[in-house]
Please model this.
Amino acid sequence: MAGGGDSTRAILFALGANFAIAVAKGVAAFFTGSSAMLAETVHSLADCGNQLLLLLGMRQARKPPSPDYPLGYGKAIYFWSFLVAVMLFTVGGMFSLYEGIHKLQHPEQIKHWYWAAGVLTFGIIAEAVSMRACLVEVNKARGGRNLWQWFRESRQAELVVIFGEDLAALFGLVFALIAVLLAAVTGNPLWDAIGTITIGALLIVVAVFVAIEVKAMLIGQSVDPARQQQMREFLDARPEINQVISLITLQLGNEVLVSVQAHMREEHSVAALTEQINTVERALKQSFPEVRWSFFEPDVKMD
Model:
């Protein structure tokens, strides 16, 4: 996987957590007859749909190249990741803002608050498990970088999306539980409205940041800066190369295109020069398995 983390594992944990939360909310809605809890059940099922879209995108990205798509379908995962970010903004953030504003205008006492508190507590536990699984994969990819640096530099769109989703969901559930408890203790339903608005704002902020990162990948980014530096150091150390003039990389999902222009040591024999280039390309792909396509332009003066 691009970046080193196992995105599939993180997505499956998030899918399991959201489905478990949806079931818990559905049970609570059935026993309490709460329309708000029923709406939350649908909301959690929509989150499950987000994970299914990411799995679909990853499957499409593995399709082999074709005449119409000679560089493969790797960037398909960026489209689906961006779509999930949009859904997180609309279905998650905007819907929560609407609900919060509606509760401000028409405050209602929370009924069966203990059901809501129980479901939210269960949700926090489930999301914490999912977040932990996500962080395990993120830590494999981020190296010595902090989480913010990894988030800005990662080229693994699906893992960026899952990290953003899990982070927003976990904090959102905590905010919701605090708001429910405050509303129950004080008897003031405005706390519930304030909590809902806070959750909406949180989801919108996370969705915007995720969308910005995925948009950059859609347009066409180079590989992770740390990985590109490793490639340059590898090429600089090759005995066949005198000097690397330029190194251009393009991340295509989990695969990479590399274009190199370099001064070669061999300047007298076309056959020997060709063999040097082939040797460097084979070694590059062996050391960096994600490199699928490589284009080498020697800068020499042949006799």
